[in-house]
Each structure stands twice: as structure tokens, then as C-alpha cells.
Design brief:
single chain; mainly beta; 12 helices; 26 strands
Length: 506
């Protein structure tokens, strides 16, 4: 039986600081002969032959350019040095990871636009409890942000709008208005008054899981795309070490999404622009790295990738239980939980499925590794680690959200959360790593859109943070500061899930 965890995990890399293994890799002797091969294919060949992983920006490397090579027993460094454009890129390595990075300085920040920052916290008036995920906007403008999990916010405002008014709105509270002329004087505290809503009632009907899945299978072709589509998306990675941030990175991506009936066609991901936090340092001498993040998070589309708990031929291996009927995005939804029938090594997940009653499409999936799955994860998720450490996965959770648009269900967002403990046998120290990766669809195109070529795609062995080489202020000016604790759906100032549309290009 195939082990189904392979389709949705993030490969993790742990490397000890001060290690010289990377330098040894660059001096490793290799042999390769090829006529008229692209640089990308050449690196893929070296990767497969010598178990060496490469991270690079395809545009800077000119990965689609063809070269001819005939090397016999020469150090890897001399082979790679012949591939990089002069004075543009250089090479460094960490263990078996070889990274091509730009040597040019970052462009100076734009000085044409001036901004002010307004910060503060939002609390409930009666109990003075923080109000998380409160929407903060400039009245009449498509600018704003959201408060984080602790009710705190920071919003970037062009100085031309300093005489406008901020509006604070959140489900369950009355809207509060605040002139920016007052807000910029000091850190502000905004008090929201509770509001009562009359919620829509629904008739409770019990649905048997067998009938729900029968509807899902019957309506599959009607509910999901049979053609390629182009997604615009926002991606983010956060990593903490002992509750201190060691990585805050985000990017805009393009994803050429394969048809849902194609089990063997991967979604193609193209990196557009990225930014990452600066001045962030690791706490211990262990480095935590996610490999292939943007590539692997597309595998969380469990409907497209036909994960084990969705497959018709595997359903006898799970217990499915109807839990309730509820409204999700104002649509009647049947909730079904699932768990393995037996403690099998290949059946690793448990969770909850949300089926839209009208279409029987999946609207949401929440799942995690079982206790048996966490034991298996010790051997499958960790690609490399120092010999003196023990890796203990403690929590691996996933949430996938879909949206119904123009008669089809589309992937709206996906989120993974890792909680892993590292025990250092030499120092007897324990280090806790937590990592969150999430993606949010911001646009969908169909028809004659610009295709993604193979040399542009983000590959499974690449490290996302290494792709972020320079900061482009002119590109990121239109994006507000994203607080690390914010939910990604709430973090983008111009994103409103009700406005997510499918556009057709002819």
C-alpha cells in the first residue's frame, strides 16, 4: 500500500551552525556529459545523481539557457562556477544544499512616497478584552489592515490621507470611527461596543456519510475544474524558536493549477516577488529550514490530490461519522469527522470534512497527524539533521478552505502548522520549533492567460527564503505590514473574500 503522507508534507532540514559539510560538498568530484542542455535540467541531473540540492532564482541564473558540458572528475564548485553570470551571482552551501545568490546590492528604497504609521490596540468596551482580527480601514478608501490575535495593529498610511478617518469594524461589535489627526499623536486604544445579531436558522437533517460521499463522487465533474486555471496567490512562512521569531517571509506567487481529474499533473508554482524580516537571529546552534514550501503547500488541496481519506478505494480504512449541520459562508453544510479504523502505518490522518449540502462539494477540511502518524513523521518528514540531535514531531495540523464561484469550487486558502521539539544529546538542551505556512488565493484566471514555463517553476528541493534576494519597495508599497499573529485572510488590505472572482481572458 502506498504511504499517503508523501503528497502533503513539507521537507524539513536541520543544520548545525559551524558545520563544514557544505564546503566538502562543493569540493566533491563529479562527472557529467551533455550537449545542449538547459542549466535547470543540468542542475536537476546533478541533484538526482549526487543527492545535492540546489536553490536559485531562474531569472538571474538564466536557467533556460542551453549549455554543453563534458566534465570528468572535477570539483562541483568549478562546474557550478561556469554556470553563473559574471559579477551577478555567487555560491554558498549548507550541508547538501547549494545556494546561488545575487551579489548585487539591494536597490535604494523609494523616497517618492511618504507614509505615517498608526499603531495601537482594540479592546471590548465592557470587559476590556482584546478584539482579534478587527478590520481597520480608511473610510472610502481601499486601504487598511487587521488587528492580530492580541488585538494589536499597525497600519501604514500615505501622508496625503492624514486628515481622513479610520473605521474599526468586527463581527459582533458596532463600528467605531477615529480621525487620523488624533490617532497619530500616540499609540491609541480603540474601544468597541458589543452588538447583537439575529442569526439565520436552519433545519437540522441527519446525513449519512455514505450518502454524502455518493453525492460528492456523483457531482465531482460538475464541482471542479476540468481545465488549467491560473491562480494569483499570497504565501507566507513563519518560524519561531522557543517562541522567538527566526523567520517571517512572504511572497506573491502565480500557480498554474492542473485539472482536478489529473492525478499525475502537478500544479506549477512561479515565484513573483518576496520579502522577509530583517534583524532576526536564531536562538540556538540548530537551524530549522522548510524546503519546497510553495511547492508542497499546493499539495494540501486534498480534493485535487485525492488524499487517502478522500479516495473511494480507501474509505473502508476510515471511520466516518456525521457530526452536525451548520452554516458556512451562509451555505448549509454537513460536518463529518473521520479517523483510522486501525492503527496502520500508512493511514496517518484524522480530522473533519465540511460538505456543502446543495452541491456536495468540499468547502473546508481540517486534519492532523494521528499519534501513530507523528511516530512515522520522525522518519519521513526530516530530510537531514545532525547526528547528535533527536527530532520529535509533537503537532502537525492542516486547514484547507474552498470557495464556490460561478458554479465551481476553488481552493481559497491552505494552512499548515508544525510543532517540533529538538533534543540535543550533547548539550542536553531542548529547543521548540513552530512553523506556519499558508497560502491565500487572490485571483483566478481562465482562458488565454500567460502560461508558466517549466524553467520558471519553484521546485520541490528549493528553499523559499533563499529566493528572496532583494527588497522592491515600489512593489510592496501597496501592501501593509503583516503582523505575524494575523490570519492571512485578514492580513491583505485589498483582499475581501466576497470579491474573489474568476476572470476570463480571450
Amino acid at each position: 500500500m502506498r504511504k499517503h503522507f508523501i503528497s502533503i508534507f513539507f521537507v524539513l532540514c536541520f543544520t548545525a551552525s559551524g558545520s563544514y559539510a557544505g564546503e566538502e560538498i562543493l569540493m566533491h568530484y563529479v562527472s557529467i556529459k551533455a550537449d545542449s542542455i538547459t542549466k535547470a535540467d543540468l542542475l536537476d541531473t546533478l541533484s538526482a545523481r549526487y543527492n545535492i540540492h540546489f536553490s536559485y532564482n531562474p531569472e538571474l541564473l538564466k536557467a533556460n539557457k542551453r549549455v554543453s558540458i563534458n566534465i570528468e572528475n572535477m570539483p562541483l564548485y568549478y562546474v557550478l562556477n561556469g554556470l553563473i553570470p559574471d559579477e551577478i551571482m555567487a555560491i554558498r552551501s549548507v550541508n547538501t544544499q547549494v545556494i546561488f545568490y545575487p551579489t548585487q546590492k539591494q536597490p535604494p528604497e523609494s523616497k517618492t512616497n511618504k507614509y505615517i504609521t498608526i499603531s495601537g490596540k482594540i479592546v471590548e468596551e465592557e470587559r476590556e478584552l482584546p478584539v482579534p482580527y478587527c478590520n481597520i480601514t480608511i473610510v472610502g478608501k481601499a486601504l487598511g489592515t487587521m488587528s492580530n490575535n492580541n488585538g494589536r495593529f499597525s497600519v501604514l498610511i500615505p501622508d496625503s490621507l492624514v486628515n481622513d478617518t479610520l473605521a474599526f469594524s468586527c463581527m459582533g461589535y458596532q463600528i467605531e470611527y477615529l480621525p487620523m489627526a488624533q490617532a497619530q499623536l500616540a499609540t491609541v486604544t480603540v474601544y468597541l461596543k458589543p452588538r447583537t445579531y439575529n442569526l439565520k436558522t436552519i433545519d437540522i437533517v441527519r446525513y449519512e456519510p455514505e450518502k454524502i460521499f455518493a453525492g460528492f463522487d456523483k457531482n465531482f465533474d460538475d464541482n471542479y475544474e476540468s481545465e488549467y486555471t491560473l491562480f494569483s496567490a499570497f504565501y507566507r512562512e513563519l518560524t519561531t524558536e522557543n517562541d522567538k521569531y527566526t523567520n517571517i517571509s512572504e511572497a506573491v506567487l502565480k500557480i498554474m493549477k492542473a485539472p482536478y481529474k489529473s492525478d499525475f499533473r502537478d500544479d506549477l508554482v512561479k515565484f513573483i516577488k518576496g520579502r522577509k524580516g530583517t534583524g532576526i537571529s536564531p536562538v540556538s546552534d540548530i537551524r530549522f529550514t522548510l524546503m519546497g514550501g510553495p511547492y508542497y503547500i499546493t499539495k494540501l488541496d486534498v480534493v485535487k490530490n485525492n488524499e487517502s481519506f478522500m479516495k473511494a478505494e480507501n474509505r473502508h480504512l476510515y471511520n466516518y461519522k456525521y457530526e452536525s449541520t451548520m452554516l458556512v459562508n451562509n451555505r448549509k453544510t454537513a460536518v463529518v469527522s473521520f479517523s483510522p479504523v486501525y492503527s496502520l502505518r500508512d493511514i496517518l490522518f484524522e480530522g473533519t470534512l465540511y460538505f456543502d449540502v446543495e452541491t456536495w462539494g468540499i468547502s473546508r477540511v481540517e486534519f492532523n497527524y494521528t499519534r501513530q502518524g507523528l511516530r512515522e513523521a520522525r522518519h519521513t518528514l526530516i530530510q537531514k539533521k545532525p547526528q547528535h540531535v533527536r527530532v520529535i514531531p509533537e503537532k502537525l495540523e492542516y486547514v484547507v478552505q474552498y470557495k464556490y464561484l460561478d458554479g465551481k469550487w476553488y481552493l481559497q486558502s491552505a494552512r499548515s502548522f508544525f510543532d517540533i521539539q529538538i533534543n540535543n544529546r550533547e548539550t542536553r538542551e531542548k529547543t521548540k520549533f513552530k512553523s506556519t505556512s499558508e497560502i491565500l488565493t487572490t485571483g483566478i484566471e481562465k482562458g488565454n492567460y500567460e502560461k508558466i514555463s517549466r524553467h520558471e517553476i519553484f521546485r520541490r528541493h528549493e528553499i523559499f527564503t533563499d529566493k528572496i534576494s532583494t527588497y522592491d519597495p515600489s512593489f510592496w508599497d501597496k501592501y501593509n505590514v503583516v503582523e505575524p499573529e494575523e490570519d492571512l485572510t485578514n492580513a491583505l488590505k485589498n483582499f475581501n473574500e466576497q470579491n474573489l472572482v474568476v476572470t476570463y481572458t480571450y
